Amino acid sequence: MKITVSKFFTLISLLIVLNACKEEAKPNIAEGSDKKIEIVEKPDLFYHYSIWHAFVNKIFEGDITAGELKTKGDIGLGSYNFLDGELIMLNGQLYQAKENGKVVKPSDDIKIAYANATFFDTDDTFNLQEVPDYETLRKYINEKLPTKNIFYAFKIHGEFSKMKCGGLHKQEKPFDKGLDYLIPNRPIFERENFTGTMVGFFCPEFIGDINASGYHLHFVSDDETFAGHVMEFEAKNLKVEIDQIHEYQFVLPQTEEYRNVGFEKEFQYKKQ
């Protein structure tokens, strides 16, 4: 078959275009000292397993594992099945704050009843020298937020002269007590003069029964021996990092208990 000059140049042009498209499809690569490093953007997504209204109505078992949750974010909070410990995730490491005050690193196959998570990507940061209480921290953060109509994640590291954290008592089936009873009667742990990190989220008021609105923070100490749900504190030299989140995903449990639950009880736990 003969190839005319015009067909030859058409073929060459097509190959050039295809090659250019191929070049544009390459991943974003950063040059390292001895190797190339692929840069992967973190998703701007708030991942939420189960819903607050189900958790309030005694859905204390889920079907997601700790290993699966690690694929949904690198910071997070929540609770393990049977309320067997507060869940804290910091920099991809999961912690389990037990009702007796012990902090452990759970295995990847442990199951989770409720969780919030995201891949943290700092959009804003500021420092606070003295913070006498939780309410003052909320006030400072409120002044920095461009709007309260989106979601936010936080990493807040500092020195704590006092910290009060709450847990939950482990439950056994049949579950006869809801959060309206369990939270006011929760175990409380206190510690003084140490360092650590608070992680958590802000949800707008319109979130309704899907999640708890307002601020929700959990804590883990730098020595990994003290953790739980943040109730109150005194701190200094806080570094506050904020991540704005514009997408929200919630995944519902695929369990018999969830399919059959009624949503009679209502309970919002905003401040603590």
Automatic annotation (TrEMBL):
Does this entry carry the keyword tRNA-binding? no
Query: What is the name of the gene encoding this protein?
Result: budA
Gene3D superfamilies, alphabetized: Hypothetical protein, similar to alpha- acetolactate decarboxylase, domain 2
Query: Which organism encodes this protein?
Result: Ulvibacterium marinum
Q: Which GO terms describe its molecular function?
A: acetolactate decarboxylase activity
Q: Which CDD domains match?
A: acetolactate_decarboxylase
A GO BP term here is: acetoin biosynthetic process
Tell me which UniProt keywords the record has, alphabetically: Acetoin biosynthesis, Decarboxylase, Lyase
Pathway annotation: Polyol metabolism; (R,R)-butane-2,3-diol biosynthesis; (R,R)-butane-2,3-diol from pyruvate: step 2/3
The source's superkingdom equals: Bacteria
The family annotation for this protein states: Belongs to the alpha-acetolactate decarboxylase family.
UniProt-listed Enzyme Commission number(s):
4.1.1.5
Which reactions are catalysed by this chain?
(2S)-2-acetolactate + H(+) = (R)-acetoin + CO2
Q: Supply the InterPro entries for this chain.
A: Acetolactate_a_deCO2ase
Q: What is this protein called?
A: Alpha-acetolactate decarboxylase
